[in-house]
Write a structure and sequence with these properties.
Two copies of one chain form a homodimer. With 243 residues, chain A is an alpha+beta fold. Chain A is built from five helices and nine strands. Chain A is elongated. Chains A, B: InterPro entries: NUDIX_hydrolase-like_dom_sf (IPR015797), NUDIX_hydrolase_dom (IPR000086), WH-like_DNA-bd_sf (IPR036388), WH_DNA-bd_sf (IPR036390), WHD_NrtR (IPR054105). Chains A, B: Residues 16-147 form the Nudix hydrolase domain.
């Protein structure tokens, strides 16, 4: 029997840690939505959202649809992660599946709007249980890509609003990297990279003193696909164009 | 009807330009083997080697098999490139295909041993005709990845023998990048990167004066797959381990 083709999506969002108090300033954590399986193999285990590729949809379209069905949202960032197709993948005895996996990021302003689809639960990325199939391995790889990429690309923006303070940007880096980042070094590196530009506006209020607002330089593409990059479009549903 | 899953491989080798004289020192060019199609769609056009994924083989195994059947060789370097699965890919009217594409590199010492399978021809990467399906786009993307990667990873090694002179390494960069590279700058960058180490041996003979031989630092993996990296193996057929 020919292998079945499925598309799954690792969806990352920064959300406050639900176990801590809701005090202002609670440091957010990386979360991802998972779907409980209701049949064998791996009945009752959590799995990445996704399913078979439909006849009339492209791979990235299938990943976007999965995200919409799981969270009610459109991604700020969507990129193909990897195709997993070892002949001995866990669960293969029930029929072999090749999974093309995408990873997506949801912005801070959208994350609290996320609906939770049926049988869906958000779990903290660093406290996952044993997932179905090889999905722990896939999440590990997606986390590694996120951590690698946050250091050299403007991907952290996908977790932020259109404008942000350097403190907010640094906190995204700290959450993603899982370690403190020195504020002065961070400011120096970000300013030297030229990746962010001051908006001339200032954020006031909250616990902190007024801070400069920045935005990313939109001339830099977050996903560098070279000759595969889509033509510039104005459609808000063009996931790979949205900064 | 569910989309069919195929695995194709872009195979790069550095070979002398067959149009120029065979004089010693002829600068090599990037070549890739293509297979002529003998049925619709795209009957008579050249296409990337590959075919449907077999029931019992993994994606990377299928890419290795394709390479072996097309050239009689095992790759020095094999990496997953991208999964192409737009619903409107050229040829979809004859049945939709999702292609997981790998790219491979063949070393200088193997390239001249390559056999040429039936209906196979080697074509120069910069002078390709109109290929079947979207294969020109796929080759363009693979070339872009090769050019991007040669500047920051030790991938050029896959085109060289175990040891090489800095001139040989620079010539690989020049062929891949398609432009001259300043020898003094190149030497400075390579030495600063720490990616190559002197062997203490010298190459004599040929047109040039004796030159230091170098090898790559094998502690650096050519394909950085993070948590997906295979366990170290001693099998010579382990394609992702071969430096």
């Amino acid at each position: 029997m020919a292998p079945t083709l499925a598309v799954s999506t690792v969806i990352f969002a920064l959300r406050p840690d639900e176990r801590s108090s809701a005090a202002v300033g609670t440091r957010p954590q990386l979360w991802l939505p998972l779907v409980v399986r209701l049949r064998d193999p791996f009945d009752g285990r959590w799995a990445l959202p996704g399913g078979p590729l439909r006849e009339d949809e492209g791979l990235a379209d299938a990943a976007s649809r999965t995200l919409l069905e799981t969270t009610g949202l459109r991604p700020n960032y969507l990129e193909q992660l990897y195709a997993f197709g070892d002949a001995d993948r866990p669960g293969a005895e029930h029929g072999r599946v090749v999974s093309v996996v995408y990873w997506a990021m949801i912005g801070a302003e959208e994350a609290h709007l996320a609906t939770t689809g049926q049988n869906v639960r958000w779990l903290a990325a660093d406290r996952l249980p044993d997932l179905a199939f090889d999905h722990n391995r896939i999440v590990d790889y997606a986390l590694w890509r996120l951590r690698t990429k946050v250091e050299y690309s403007r991907i952290a923006h996908a977790f932020l609003g259109e404008t942000f303070t350097l403190r907010e940007l640094r906190e995204v880096h700290e959450v993603v990297l899982g370690k403190p980042v020195d504020p002065a070094n961070f400011r120096r590196q970000v300013e030297a990279s030229g990746a962010v530009v001051p908006t001339g506006q200032v954020r006031t209020g909250g616990r902190h003193r007024p801070a400069q607002l920045y935005r990313y330089d939109t001339a830099i593409e977050p996903v560098d696909l070279g000759p595969l990059a889509p033509e510039p479009q104005k459609s808000p549903t063009s996931t790979e164009e949205t900064p």
